[in-house]
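>> received
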Amino acid sequence: MREQSQSLLTAMGAVLLLLAGCDQALVEAKASSKPGMPDRYSSAPQSQPVDLLQAITPSAPEALPSTGFDGLQARVQQASDQAAASGATISVAILDRGTRQMVTNGNSQIVGTASVAKLFIADDLLLQESQGRTPLSVDDRQALDIMLQSSDDGAAERFWNQDGAGAIINQVASRYGLASTTPPNDGRWWNTMSSATDLIRYYDMLLDGSGGLPAERANLIVGDLAQSTPHGDDGYPQRFGIPDGLYAEPVAVKQGWMCCIGSAWMHLSTGVIGADRRYIMVIQSLQTSDDATARQTITQAVKTIFPNGRI
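>> returned
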């Protein structure tokens, strides 16, 4: 667990102090779109799930509407209200890749990704390897696995420094069209900025290959996420949110957690849900409490949204 002073938590423009995932205090900035990048998602509250007119996965097979999405918008709002009553602010986005429906709670805040940025580090590294530009040794492969499964910071630091640092984020954001994902302004990978809908988009395009990473390399990432360990490499419990909330589903997740500004904790739970990888969920919370309470809050939000532990 890293710590970061408030003096580092400064962002350009209009900013809102936040914590951001896994290991670092981060800054929440108002979302803005990059020129030329299409705005595919709307985070505004809806009376029913949003039918995405521009499918990101045009080759995906048609699917019947999921009964798990029946009443989903109301349950997402209920979870948001319950979290607020506990002193937490949450951001939620859920995509059904089969029907192209997405539900959010209308919170369009930018979240610092912290250890979820390790997805981008892995993606860039594996693309370079697939193109013959960066050979990976057996030790490199093992380090990559541990970075994704157990959120090892040492491996992330090594790959970040050797592969271009902030340029990694620019390249991944360009390939995937991530309009609100930006490199850290202090050069530290854990301060990479993104949004819930950008992370949804990243996973969706990772799965269908439209982000440019070959399928066999994408499967390496998802396979590692499916083997997410109960505790991170630093010993922190990392089954909060999606894993413990959707206990009856197979999940592949990348988690982020962080303290502190004062006594506030941030937790970020992201990943792919279902044996057929049909669903993607991102949920982030910020709460002034102890870490156990904060983990319980984000997990309870997922359980409220999906009370049977499955979608």
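>> The radius of gyration is 18 Å.
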